[in-house]
Design brief:
single chain, 7 helices, 2 domains, Serine Threonine Protein Phosphatase 5, Tetratricopeptide repeat, 322 residues, four-stranded antiparallel beta sheet, alpha+beta, disordered N terminus, Methylamine Dehydrogenase, Chain H, six-stranded antiparallel beta sheet
Length: 322
């Protein structure tokens, strides 16, 4: 009973460890006996819970500040096995073996800074990697071997917008690269440790090697075109010289039409952009009257669309053949 009292405060019948669901992607936890309230995430097997608080002990200072370190706890069941401090702990993840990671946002300085931290189940540090960039998010393999963190944009060429992979068994950084598919919302490692899957709000998870080779690039492109993603249409057109042709151009036109059907009525600039992209594809197919119509409609919606010269060229071409 004494052990239960130390863990739960009032005995097993009324444990003082309460977890509440949150719509923000992580849960909240209250542990009054440790004077702790913060966010938390559990391990996939449910055994461990990593909890963190980006704020000082009395709760009067959180977020960007000049002093008052945040706190983190690791629980094995209901027992606290690690209790530590970081400037601004965030984005906690914990593996089935109790290995856990945190992003330290380090806003004790006005500079762009962040530190990725990894720990064993007993709280001992595995590694700490400082970046000259703010940290966006992180990921951890279910078995605790591999981890990763993504940085935000930064003036520092080395650390700007990179995904960095760590081998936590060896306690070392493996590699660092910029995902072509952009910043992900989540990460999963394959069971054999050969691949990392980047998850997004839209589209399927995308597979890379740990070295950064993009294995699912075709899937990424096709999925975006299926959604009518204008950024992807624009990207593909820029990769095609001089202009898309044949069945490929038809595929892009279908995607542009899907985008046009989804554009809000109060968003003329996006509609103009979609019309320009469709016109470019029609141009590549030498369907000049239809291309000209798209360019003219787009220009009427956005005078800065950048198609005036091509409109003039097409008008002269069509006039000379009439």
């Amino acid at each position: 009973m004494a052990i239960l009292s130390r863990l739960f405060g009032r005995g097993a019948a009324t444990p003082e460890v309460a977890i509440r669901a949150s719509a923000l992607g992580s849960n909240f936890i209250d542990i009054p006996v440790h004077r702790f309230h913060g966010q938390c995430q559990s391990s996939p097997n449910g055994r461990f819970t990593i909890a963190w608080r980006d704020g000082n002990d009395d709760g009067t200072r959180g977020g960007a500040r000049s002093e008052g370190k945040g706190r983190y706890l690791l629980l094995d069941g209901k027992a606290v096995t690690a209790d530590g401090r970081l400037e601004r702990p965030n984005d906690g993840k914990v593996a089935d073996n109790g290995t856990f990671v945190l992003n330290d946002w380090r806003f004790f300085t006005s500079e762009l800074r962040g530190t990725f931290c990894a720990f064993r189940a007993d709280g001992t540090e595995i590694l700490r990697r400082k970046f000259k960039a703010n940290l966006y998010n992180n990921g951890l393999a279910r078995d605790g071997r591999y981890a990763c963190c993504q940085t935000c944009n930064s003036p520092d060429e080395r650390d700007s917008s990179v995904l960095t992979i760590f081998d936590l068994e060896k306690g070392m950084e493996v590699t660092s690269w910029r995902p072509e598919s952009g910043w992900a919302n989540g990460y999963n490692f394959s069971d054999d440790g050969q691949h990392i899957f980047l998850s997004y709000q839209q589209g399927p998870p995308l597979r890379y090697t740990l070295a950064g080779d993009f294995l699912d690039r075709t899937l990424w492109v096709e999925s975006a075109l299926d959604r009518g993603d204008l950024y992807m249409i624009d990207r593909v057109i820029k990769e095609t010289h001089p202009k898309p042709q044949g069945a490929f151009a038809r595929r892009l036109i279908e995607s542009a039409d899907k985008a046009l059907s989804a554009v809000r009525a109060d968003d003329p600039r996006t509609r103009a952009w979609a019309l320009k992209l469709k016109g470019t594809c029609l141009d590549g197919l030498e369907e000049y009257p239809a291309a000209l119509a798209c360019y003219e409609q787009g220009l009427a919606l956005d005078p800065k669309l950048g198609v005036k010269r091509r409109i003039e060229q097409l008008r002269k071409k069509l006039a000379s053949t009439s």
